[in-house]
Amino acid sequence: MGRYIDLDGVRTWYDERGTGDPLVLLHGGLSDSRDFTGNLDALAGHYRTFLPDRRGHGRTPDVVGPFTGDALAGDVIAFLEQVVGGPARLVGYSAGATVALHVAVRRPDLVERLVSISGAFDADGLLLRPSADGPMPPQIVAAYAEVSPDGAEHFPIILDKVVEAAAQPGLTLSDLTSVPCRALVLSGDDDLVSLDHTLALYRALPDSALAIVPEASHLLMHEKPAEVTALVAAFLIGDPVPTLMPIRRAGAPDEFPARLGKVALRELAVHGYTSWAQLAAVTPAQLLAIHGVGPKAIRILTEELAERNLSFAG
Question: What is the pTM of this model?
């Protein structure tokens, strides 16, 4: 049995199941919280699980205005504050993953752990963008009409808003480096989101893990429900296990100052820079070519090298 709550003018429907620490599941575009039926809804056995329908989707009626990243993230932030009552584990699928990323960037204090399933931080990562040209699959329209308080005739308006939203600029890699929580980036190997984009998302999130489900598409939660649920559950429930031969997760040497930031420290180590002598053998331009090493890091390193009577090459 679901219920409604008013979130700053958005009459939002949600279901709540289970007990324990809070978990919020955010569904994809042109669908609703039924995305998680037969897969991640099993997590209610471990968590107090919330399944909201986003504005204009499922049982939540549409409101005036476009589906912007700020608006959709604002809805989830209000939900976390007013319904959940604080931070939660946040799992998003497809467009819901994009919303979850916006929330994590905007209000990191409200996201304890983050899971992005087939999510894109920018629409440029989509191999196929949503389009209003041509007929929609009848099962999508029928599912919308089955529960929408706006009626089947409102579906073309929702579709237009989704198409318009996909044309707007998304998050940047720099935005993603500010997310402090542990994150799992999960995708099918034949996903609607390109693998290059998925890899960029994984690399940009400072404390992230990556899982690619073989022989799976953008509908991986329905194609491989047990496998996807097991991966998400293991990430949410367990603590990270140190690997025996870390490369990406290898820490920079203690002598490198913490004020460089976790991302810069990590990327220096990944690219093999583990001593001041190595840094003195390269130019600032070479380091700036490394994602996560920016002008601020170069300024700090220049100061640190000078204290050791060293300097960059060139």
Answer: 0.84
